[in-house]
């Protein structure tokens, strides 16, 4: 079956702009989580959506938001971009009921803010 | 709060040599433990996971890991490394209750020398 698809793969944005990233989970998976990966902070949890509802949120400012659609696809949005938002953004797909099922990651979106 | 420590930032081994990557976790109950591998510019690939049962788990690419509750460890091993194993390795923990998210260690970068 198809894996987790993240689009676009690369983005370059200017400080102050906003950006929207997309994640399509594995078919049948209802949970999508987002992570930010930077050399300084490593992998940090942003938020998790399950059946169109945000269940959990990490410690990020309100400029970071997301949503999930009825087909389980998810988008995350970052407004008023800052240089420090440059990172690899990864989404993870899971069935959503139990961590024992595991999490499958996409290839990520590399965001560069200039 | 759950946490993961990977004490080795960078490890260099010769091709054909054995490998052990260390991971220690902090969590109140039985954790769900994962090892992921990341090649440059790529997403995370699941190597193996543990949540119950046999404490020695086998994964893909010839990797195995052993859960030791008394030491709060989940070390990753491979008897003979190949040049293609050069990558960054992340240990992660998840909990069944509360936040369904992965908490990652800082990663260990593995270099293979011929």
Q: How would you portray this structure in words?
A:
- The complex is a heterodimer of chains A (114) and B (114).
- Chain A has no helices and 11 strands.
- Chain A has 114 residues and is mainly β.
- In chain A, strands 2, 4, 5, 6, 9, 10 and 11 form a 7-stranded mixed β-sheet that branches.
- By secondary structure, chain B is an all-beta fold.
- Chain B is built from no helices and 12 strands.
- In chain B, the strands form 3 sheets. In chain B, strands 2, 5, 6, 10, 11 and 12 form a 6-stranded mixed β-sheet that branches. Chain B has a 4-stranded antiparallel β-sheet with strand order 3-9-8-7, with no helix packed on it. A two-stranded antiparallel ribbon of chain B has the order 1-4.
- The N and C termini of chain B lie far apart (41 Å).
- Classes of the chains: A mainly beta (114), B mainly beta (114).
- The interface between A and B is medium-sized, with 28 and 26 residues.
